[in-house]
Amino acid sequence: MSTPSEHVPVTAVRPEMLPFWMPFTANRQFKANPRLLARAEGMHYFTPEGRPVLDGTAGLWCVNAGHGREQISNAVAAQIREMEYAPLFNMGHPIAFQFAERLAAMAPEGLNRVFFTNSGSESVDTALKIAIAYHRVKGEGARQRLIGREKGYHGVGFGGISVGGMVNNRKFFGALLPGVDHLRHTLDIEHNAFSRGLPQWGAHLADDLQRIAELHDPSTIAAVIVEPVAGSAGVILPPVGYLKKLREICDRHGILLIFDEVITGFGRLGEPFAADFFGVKPDIITAAKGLTNGSIPMGAVFVRNEIYDAFMTGPEHAIELFHGYTYSGHPVACAAGLAVLDIYEQEDLLTRAKEMSDYWEDAVHSLRGMPHVIDVRNLGLVAGIELASRDGAPGARAFDAHIKCFEKGALVRFTGDIIALSPPLIIEKQHIDELFGTIGEVLKTID
Ligand SMILES: Cc1ncc(COP(=O)(O)O)c(C=O)c1O
User: Fold this and answer.
1) Per-residue pLDDT tens over the stretch 313-355
2) Which of 214, 276, 314, 401 has its CA 20 to 30 A from that of 375?
3) What angle do CA 335, 229, 43 make, to 5 degrees?
């Protein structure tokens, strides 16, 4: 994912930090100069010394309702006391059904069946498996190919990295799944730099799907999966009309369309789902992160009712889908999720990004003309600020910006030389001013 700076000196790794092999981290560098977050409340993290850090990233795109929400911690504590775990394989517990019912009611119409997982990666692999199995139960077992997209991020399972398109996430892990092809990505700074919101140029890139369908023959393709807005590769927006075009091509050929909404689900663009925002209905939606406000790991896969129905045709005593996790529909995660949905509803958070997005957009674009900035991109409460790379050291400049912002009290994310922002949806204008003020100052000071 990110390329850490090579020139930050690695002094001595702290021995007490050695045992924990940290995920997606330059372990030696970090353990020599750690940045720790010990507490959180509202829009802020606090370091162990008590220094506040403004959260510009909602953790990792997940703490949409902000930090330290008592409604969630109370619900979680009560559920652990009541029943910490019960199996869901041929058994049930009420709260999983309640949570699925609430989710189904807010999902785009027609996608009202919910399969629970524990993460975005598991949601993706679940969606891919359901897509292939769906065609098989319908008698189209030849449809096994999966189409992803360059620069796509779909988590770290073998399915997800196979359809994903981030080179470092793929190249270490062998041959990956067979039968996978990729659309071109939609990032084009030459045509679209400094677009406000969706870029105008590039809808034709969706025609790649038609080309790939013709190459392999559509009857061999199970599904295409895309992030409606790609986050991990550095905030890549779909050109105007692109997603509709993908939908049309899928319809023409009987290909399922999967939207990976792990980061866009639950209000990031100012609608509950990106599918609502773009007015394009996929067949399957993957979700996680904002589902429980990041408080308890959980993911969900929303499927079109007809897909579920297609599996419900064999003998009634037989398991219809040989798939599931010990912790699918975990009662504590469901309790957290129900409390989170209450908060989203009570505070209108799933549409709040719409209200804030003009102010956010102006703030993002105020960075145009700052040192090193070659593009800024924004939509809803998402922003990407692309910096020119230093010669021979890609990623170093954004890494420095990340470190300097942290020192100045703002948490921003970096991927390659792109600073990515996705704050909690409770953000106020003064936080936006502070966040972009800090980034602007930092850009003036780094080389
Ligand atoms: C679009 C998308 N899909 C899947 C994932 C994987 O989610 P997780 O890290 O919960 O497995 C992510 C994580 O950032 C994501 O952004």
Assistant:
1) 999 999 999 999 999 999 999 999 999 999 999 999 999 999 9
2) 276
3) 50
Give the pLDDT score at 9: 53
User: What is the identity of the amino acid at 21?
Assistant: W
Strand-pair partners of 53: 45
> Where do the domains of the chain lie?
15-65+352-445, 70-346
Instruction: Assess whether the C-beta atom of 119 lies below 6 angstroms from ligand 1.
Output: yes
Task: Please give the number of the atom of ligand 1 that sits closest to the Cα of 263.
Answer: 16
The tokens describing 422, both together, are: 């996705």
The amino acid at 153? Y
3-state secondary structure of 223: strand
The pair of structure tokens assigned to 365 is 């674009």
Task: Pick the atom of ligand 1 nearest to 232's CA.
Answer: 16
Instruction: Let me know if the fold of 15-65+352-445 is the same as that of 70-346.
Output: no
Top CATH class, 70-346: alpha beta
Distance 232 CA to ligand 1 centre (A): 8
Domain 15-65+352-445 has CATH 3.30.420.10: no
Which is nearest to 164 in space by CA: 223, 227, 237? 227
